[in-house]
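DATA SHEET
Item: assembly model
Revision: 1
Owner: S.N.
Input lines:
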Amino acid sequence: MTEAGSHPWLSGLFDDAETARLWSPEAQLAHMRAFEAAWSRAGPIAGLWSRDEGAAAAEAIERAEVDLQALRDGTARDGVCVPELVRQFKAAAGASVHRGATSQDVIDTATILCLVATLDLFEQRLNDLILSLSALEDRFGAVSIMGRTRMQAALPMLARTRLQSWSVPLDRHRTRLAALRPQISVVQIGGAVGDRASLGANAAEFSEAVATSLGLSAPPQAWHSARDGISEAASLLSLISGSLGKMGQDIALMAQQGVEEILLSGGGGSSAMPHKQNPVLAELLVTLARYNATLVAGMHQSLVHEQERSGAAWALEWLILPQMAQTTGCALGAARQVLARITRIGPA
Amino acid sequence: MTEAGSHPWLSGLFDDAETARLWSPEAQLAHMRAFEAAWSRAGPIAGLWSRDEGAAAAEAIERAEVDLQALRDGTARDGVCVPELVRQFKAAAGASVHRGATSQDVIDTATILCLVATLDLFEQRLNDLILSLSALEDRFGAVSIMGRTRMQAALPMLARTRLQSWSVPLDRHRTRLAALRPQISVVQIGGAVGDRASLGANAAEFSEAVATSLGLSAPPQAWHSARDGISEAASLLSLISGSLGKMGQDIALMAQQGVEEILLSGGGGSSAMPHKQNPVLAELLVTLARYNATLVAGMHQSLVHEQERSGAAWALEWLILPQMAQTTGCALGAARQVLARITRIGPA
Amino acid sequence: MTEAGSHPWLSGLFDDAETARLWSPEAQLAHMRAFEAAWSRAGPIAGLWSRDEGAAAAEAIERAEVDLQALRDGTARDGVCVPELVRQFKAAAGASVHRGATSQDVIDTATILCLVATLDLFEQRLNDLILSLSALEDRFGAVSIMGRTRMQAALPMLARTRLQSWSVPLDRHRTRLAALRPQISVVQIGGAVGDRASLGANAAEFSEAVATSLGLSAPPQAWHSARDGISEAASLLSLISGSLGKMGQDIALMAQQGVEEILLSGGGGSSAMPHKQNPVLAELLVTLARYNATLVAGMHQSLVHEQERSGAAWALEWLILPQMAQTTGCALGAARQVLARITRIGPA
Amino acid sequence: MTEAGSHPWLSGLFDDAETARLWSPEAQLAHMRAFEAAWSRAGPIAGLWSRDEGAAAAEAIERAEVDLQALRDGTARDGVCVPELVRQFKAAAGASVHRGATSQDVIDTATILCLVATLDLFEQRLNDLILSLSALEDRFGAVSIMGRTRMQAALPMLARTRLQSWSVPLDRHRTRLAALRPQISVVQIGGAVGDRASLGANAAEFSEAVATSLGLSAPPQAWHSARDGISEAASLLSLISGSLGKMGQDIALMAQQGVEEILLSGGGGSSAMPHKQNPVLAELLVTLARYNATLVAGMHQSLVHEQERSGAAWALEWLILPQMAQTTGCALGAARQVLARITRIGPA
């Protein structure tokens, strides 16, 4: 997420190495390479070139060195890295490369591959959090704490009521992730204007082959300018971090002097007051929730994606979606840590 | 939506009477009344009062006059209308009213009833739009228009490619609505701190009875402070208006002099230039998409809902969710109108 | 603000009658009428018509009945009310009306007149709040309360430190309002494409005359598509409500059981728990701050205002700016009320 | 801005090296170091230590090696780098370090120093843009182009009308920058809870000395929890990028086939269509405007900054403000480039 994730010291707070790796330039490049190799291999289905030509090109693509500086220059020139990447792949692999594809096919499919891996990781992290919360419920669920509404003491209740208000939404998010995964696991194949015209009569079969080799499915048409799937995924990322933000806000409120319904071990030193122990991770969850809630608006703005490809709306997604994924990843990691540090819920 | 929906002249642009009626004060009051009546009737299941007492109270609630001025004063005083509404219902119906419930049970259930009716309406409107687009595809799908990417002419393509880029997301939204409807069609029953403690051992059966009588289902626990369902619904509302905004942007671009790939009948006069015909409805779709994209961020901010009930985060939803529903409703209506006005796609 | 401001009961919480009046349809219509009358009167300067014709038309405009239903229909048709309004004015006042003007001249100038009146009102309200806070500082400033950082007790401090953290930003906002007022108090005069071409060589003198009669100044050119002034004003509205949201959040935290550093009189009943006294107004301040913080993004999106007039970006402002003004007005009113209810700061 | 600014290839599009350097970890560390050195030197004024002790400590701080890995670990532990940084400085410089200060004093002052340098840079870039636009006006201002309103041809006008709609807001932004600079050029000095209590009777004189040595002024009190200045600065950053987004949108529309009112040299290749020349930089300006318009909402959310220091709201600023500065910097750079590439305005 943001430069904060790779910052020499802020990364201590904001980095989530595992999610960052899924969205790293290396991962993106690997996905683009895989897409182009799959395209070359499947090419014969669409009559683009012969099976041997395609197989040879694919292998060359898989081995090709990529000149990143040239890729950067190409991106500055063309607004997207693909024209230069294709030039490099063609230099290494010959002509049986990329024909009939367009930049957006490559980039969007790579993004989907990043996203699907992220959903898988987050599903597992949600599982872990739900287990942690269940364990906390076993330990502290029967303790009486004060139920609070509108920032005022209301009535005593079991701690399990609050713990469940944290875990039940995570369980729903798990269900949402499972429902979203197949919807979003789709290859982008459209060609210049999205109509697959240069892929001929076998476009569907060709798309199926490319998709299968990447572990994706092939939708009946390209979604170059129909960004509802991407925005829906972003919305879910923010729903998850938002639910964790609620948990963080609760923990920070429980840790207040005068309330003291929770005890956390470790962390949170102050430069001015050595006696303090700040609920840093709980606050971080609030920060990350509000950050994603801010960013999600930009993804929805990018739904207004004019004509067959909007350079403006598309690049807005590039700035936002990877950050949202990493923000949610960071929140899931911070949630895991903060739950592990809970040594008491309820009165001392 | 906003005061613009009830404004003496702006309503000409922004009002959608049908959706507005679903969220009107009258509808909200009717839903709250239905909730309280169902509560009184189901009360015997939770041992709150006898069957006769509950039935009599329910009937009295259904007939009770509501003093709106007092309701306004109560809202100013208590931050929510329910304490005063319950006082009025008790004055009319006696003591077998509301016991074990809390304000949020009433308001959230009423909101859900507004929302479910809205989803039903929008599903039907999406059907209509998809049919309209299909008819346009029949008429103009085989015409060649210029495919445009990054605001530049790319390659000619069939008009059906663009028409499908408008309709396919609507079809997905229809599927999303159908999937969301049962998830969101849930009663809110939690009582003071959300644990249903005052409903005793039969809380689940009681909740089931209340839910059933309102056409909803009963989740295993309250969701007072777990707002993921509400935010997910808001996100979908914005996804729908966003897809329509893309269509509106395309139409406005197609209607430009020098491009002229579409002809619209009627509308769009200018006070300075009688010769102009402005694509007002197409622009309106962009406005509504960007408005909902703005608002959705506030719904995600309200996920950070502290403790058992956040007056602050909850009231933020009150300001936003009804507007988002009406913005999407207005967009669906404007989309229907603009499609009906298309008399040509493709070159003149 | 939103329909919540005119809602039969939510208005108890969200209405600010004084600000609402400044943005009411009646006020908007009066401003548009004043603009058109000033235009007719100044017309001779630009050679549009004779002095007598202009004066007669202006008086007729000032007396003209406006058919609101027709205005609504015109807005639905043209996307803006002005063509129909001008038609009605011409029917009443003859031909010496509006020539050389465009819809945006009328609407934007009317908006500016709403906004300037709002700034004046808010300056006075900020004065009142600063006085209230100063009085509280006199009463409670020397009391020791716990300074809290990162939600943890830090060190004791004087209550005046916190009170000043509430009032000093209000003082800065007052300065900002005073600096903004002359910047924003500008007439909009551009004509069809913003170049004042149909106003001839005396366009500047003409603009000066129209501006003066409306209590505004005349900028050297139209700002039809340069919305920085409007967005800057919106940003300031949100800065103000944001500072009040901080105060509200502090008060809600101080009112917590276990903290109890503040005592508020009145308000905040619960339907489930008669013993509770909820800090409704303090929470409301948080809601309003977060609402404006959400909306401000839409005003900044509308800076991307294409060509000489964007129907899409302009109408987005219509939905948002009046709400932001009324949200800030409501916050200023709620802040006044909540400060008046403080009966104790510091330990009981 | 975001990781896109340091990404191996996306940086070709999104990096602005000059602005990035102003916000780099190296710059931040240099500012924190300067703050701590100034604090040690000024210490005698507040009776914290002797002149010699302070001077020696300051010199040691200025020479101290900083262990970045430990700084990262400290940030992970404490939520802020300062406790560990102070530990390292004390190890190198002895006890005459940081006493009476708090983490927020250090970080906020460093942020202000980044921001002030940014404002200076941007003022100069605005000057350059205004000159470029003036030169374009000299070359093409008298050419007739079609004025367009609501996406429709309205009336012919001189190109200077549109060019001025781009440059006049930049001129206003220059004025805003000049007005904001002294307001924002303030040191943060408050100590543990913001009341400067540990600085004694000479706190004001001490603050003045620290501020002066950093080229800043000293406000009468700390602004730990009063974030209006920071949010106002963020709003201005977005106003600037928003005005440039309007210019970018116009250029992209002018470059359309069928409109062709502008000719740009260089750039914008396509992987699928060698004949295309995409207005990449113009689209980028739209992207950056919408990105900052999205982010500004988060800065306004962070105005709700509870008590004497909110870890949650403060860290939200850390994620957003540096990105906004770099987004605006990138936009200013892209605007300069795109203006330099204009070889024709008006019909071919």
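QC remark: The mean pLDDT of chain C is 96.
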